[in-house]
């Protein structure tokens, strides 16, 4: 379990699953083992000597003086996905959540940075054959444009299923708040628009007592994208916009004391962005 302190705010990583030594080219366009091997600062934490990357599925719990906030909810258990790696998973996520000292019923807010398969799964859990909100007292915050896009789209059958079992049940329960991409959650936490990977993608900015953190969502999937902001994914809504967003965000926080927390970054998960010639690197 990893924790970070940002002024009066505590951020805790809750792992669903981790995978070491995967072929980055299966995730990021351009991230072949040969190309990843050339980024020497990735080793040993984020890639191995063969150029295979390390990857993580996790949520963050953000505790402020007034709110307990979960950021993204991974893949989830028991769900029909038609993707072998994600189909009917059985993970220690809820066990890890409890062992970290959290109670599902005490969560005030769930932030969905976007509505992809691996960011909304634990919005719901299977109880007596029904998909039931995992965090029954929480308000689920979703960007309005993001929600409408996935509610009405017809071309992606997998995400029609994702919407039906992981988004619609919390909507039907009256727990969803559709918000703007710059929504202020509380004094210390607000959303920031980071479009490209999806239409209404957001990241989460935390500020307290002069300290800052940025939780990425899928604005960036792996630290290798700091060295290659042009490496997007085949799942991006707008690859060119995604690259512009990464370059803009990295440039804005580079060489400043801002903790970048990657929603898919393997341990140690967080670090500071520094300039490295015309691109960037992560210092942990």
Protein described:
This protein is 20% helix and 31% strand. It has 284 residues and is of the alpha+beta class. It has one domain: Ribonuclease Z/Hydroxyacylglutathione hydrolase-like (Metallo-beta-lactamase, Chain A, 4-Layer Sandwich). A hairpin with a 2-residue loop joins strand 12 (202-208) and strand 13. The two termini are 16 Å apart. The relative contact order is 0.17.
Coarse morphology: globular
User: What CATH first level would be assigned?
Assistant: Alpha Beta
CATH architecture: 4-Layer Sandwich
Percent of residues in beta strands: 25-35%
Q: How many DSSP helices?
A: 6
**Could you list the spans in which at least 5 consecutive residues all have pLDDT below 50?**
none
- What's the N-to-C terminus distance? 16 Å
Radius of gyration: 18 Å
Specify the structural class: alpha+beta
Physical arrangement of strands within the biggest beta sheet: 1-2-3-4-5-8-9
How many runs of DSSP E, i.e. beta strands? 16
- Largest pleated sheet: 7 strands, mixed
Element string (H = helix, E = strand): EEHEEHEEEEHHEEEEEHHEEE
What number is the mean pLDDT?
Answer: 97
**Count of discrete structural domains:** 1
Fourth-level CATH superfamily:
Ribonuclease Z/Hydroxyacylglutathione hydrolase-like
Quaternary structure type = single chain
Could you say what the CATH topology is called?
Answer: Metallo-beta-lactamase, Chain A
Helix content: 10-25%
